[in-house]
Structure formats: C-alpha cells, structure tokens
Design a protein that fits this description.
By secondary structure, this protein is of the alpha+beta class. The chain has ten helices and four strands, in the order αβαβαββααααααα. A hairpin with a 2-residue loop joins strand 3 and strand 4. The longest helix is centred in the C-terminal third of the chain and has 20 residues. The N and C termini lie far apart (about 50 Å). The structure holds glutathione.
Length: about 220
Amino acid sequence: MEEKKKVVLHGMWASPFVRWVKIALKIKGITYEYVEESMKKKSQLLLIYNPIYKKVPVLVHNEKPIVESLIVLQYIDDTWNTSPYLLPSDAYSKSMIDMPLRKLAASQGIEEEKSMMEVQMNLNILEENMNVIFPYNSPCGENMGLLDILLCCLPNVIKAIEEALNVKIMEPQKYPLTSSRMASLCGLEVALDTAPSHEKLVKFFRAYRRFYTHIN
Ligand SMILES: N[C@@H](CCC(=O)N[C@@H](CS)C(=O)NCC(=O)O)C(=O)O
C-alpha cells in the first residue's frame, strides 16, 4: 500500500513514450498511480515537475520527478534492481544498444517534428543492424528488454498515422527483420494490455492533423 503511493506516472494515453514506461513498470511488477494529462491544458503539477520540456511521461518516485522517457526507463531498471532487467548488465552490451535505442526513440517522435525521411532513415539503420542488435535471434518475450519495449510500441503509431493522414511510412517488405520482430512483440500480453485502440489513435492523429502538415 505504502509502495503504491510512492510511484506516480503522468502520461497521455496516445503517447508511445508513456506506453514504454507503462510496459516497463508492468514487466518489473511495480504498482503505480496513473494521472492522465491533457496536452491542451497541462496540469500545474506537470509544469512543476517538467518545467523545461512540459512533456509526458513524468515518473514521480517518492515525490521526485524523473523526466525524458529513456532516462525514466533506465531509472526504473536501476531503482528496482532485480530481475527481470531491462538493460544488459555489462557496459559493452549497454554501449551496443545505445545507438538503436536512440534511433528507435527518435522514430517514435514522428507525431512531432520529425520528418518522414528521417524516420525512414532510422528504420533503415535499424534493419541493417538487426542481426547485430539481436545476435542470437533471441526469442521475443523472454526477458523483454528496452529495445523490445521500444520496438513493440512503434507499429500502432505508424499504422494510425498512415491511416489518418493517408501516407505510407513503413513497407514491411523493406524492413523484414524489424517488421517480423515487431509483429511478434505486438502479440505479447504486455503489449496487448497497454495498446491504445487503433480507431481512437486514428481519430487522435486526424484531430491533430495541423501539427503534421509537413507529412503531406
Ligand atoms: N523526448 C521526450 C518526448 C516525450 C513527448 O514528446 N511527449 C509528448 C506526448 S507523445 C508530449 O508530452 N507533448 C506535449 C507537448 O509537446 O507540449 C521523451 O522521450 O520523454
């Protein structure tokens, strides 16, 4: 009960960045309180917790705010320092996944200022490196790490933007390894439990169409 009060996640239902954190908390078995934020009228608390970027996710642990999703994920892994781990323990393996993590994180900013070309470039880099990133073709679901968490949240954002804005972002045949891993990950319970509805996402991206005029 005490522990429950200590962890609060400020989020927004459509955000893949927030979904990463929800998945990480679920994998780690951490109970938390969830506060849904409105992006049109941000709460006073959000502005206090994240005064520079004013963005979600914000994780509040023992009243201390942690911002920026990748930092939040690392914080969760470091703080609840028991298995299952989200990051590899040795420094070399950590350094190997740093680039793909950043590329994936940048690709999920497609609902913001990223251009489609940049997203596709990031996907190309990932595809070329999939065999290096997952050297043993490690099966999905067993020890879902940070990279898998990021990969599993990308498809539904892409599909919803493709439908809402009538554009093609990701042709599965161009990214066979990435697409196949994403498809397996999307079928996992933790992914299904945290996935926003496709119809709701499409509506969301249509409503915010003016922010994405650069896509067309
Ligand atoms: N770099 C940030 C990006 C988070 C982000 O872009 N959050 C969006 C929701 S998807 C947000 O809060 N947007 C509010 C705004 O831009 O005013 C992270 O990784 O946490």
